[in-house]
Amino acid sequence: MKRRATRSSQRGLLLLEAVLSAVVIAVGLVFISRALSQQLRALSDVERHDALATLAQGTLEELEARVRAGKPPQQITDVAFGEPYDEASRDARWSLKITPLSADETDADQTIVRVSRVVLTVRRGEPSTSLVKLSAIWPTAMIPEEWK
Fold first, then answer.
1. Are 117 and 137 contacting, i.e. CB atoms less than 8 angstroms apart?
2. In the chain, helix, strand, coil percent, each to 5?
3. Which secondary-structure segment (H or E) carries 66?
4. In the 8-state DSSP scheme, what is residue 80?
5. Distance (Å, rounded) from C-alpha 21 to C-alpha 134?
6. Distance (Å, rounded) from C-alpha 9 to C-alpha 11?
7. Contact, 12 vs 94, CB < 8 A?
8. pTM of this structure
9. What is d(CA 22, CA 127) in angstroms, rounded to the nearest whole number?
10. What is the DSSP letter of 21?
């Protein structure tokens, strides 16, 4: 013989469904908030790296222009960024490493041109929390003697 559900047992079932739904929604929100915070942290890291890469690119171009103008900076290792850089860049430091390459290039007149690899490293924080390295090939004759 089947027993018919009474009104009080139906209310208990609705309460159980409501509690289970709330638990499922709460668990889902926890996972969504964790994923969102991880994405925000990753975005912040990308923004810091992009700012450092832009700073490194500008510094390498500035160094090349100063060397071509005959006014290279004396110090090329562990140099701090000062004015006119913003507050975020002031704790960044740069250094330059020059490595002569064994292969020689020839220019349009078939003249042998000796070249060197110039690697600019820009880092932020101690110990380095962010690091960007840019590499360029410069004619060795363009590099100041005190840098070699």
1. yes
2. 50, 25, 30
3. helix 7-68
4. E
5. 54
6. 5
7. no
8. 0.67
9. 45
10. H
- Residue 122 burial by Cβ neighbours in a 10 Å radius (0-12, 13-18, 19+): buried
- In this predicted model, what pLDDT tens digit does every residue of 37-87 receive, in sequence order? 999 999 988 888 888 888 889 889 988 998 889 888 888 888 887 666 666
Average pLDDT over all residues of the chain? 82
How wide is the angle at C-alpha 115 spanned by C-alphas 114 and 118, nearest 5°?
155
Distance CA(100)–CA(113), nearest Å, equals 12
Q: Which residue has the tokens 């923004």?
A: 47
Q: Which two tokens stand for residue 83?
A: 């004015």
Burial of 94 (C-beta count, 10 Å sphere; 0-12/13-18/19+): buried
Q: With cut-offs at 50, 70 and 90, classify the pLDDT of residue 88.
A: low
Residue 148, pLDDT score: 74
Residue 130's CB is within 10 A of a number of other CB atoms, namely: 15
Specify the DSSP class assigned to residue 88. Answer: G
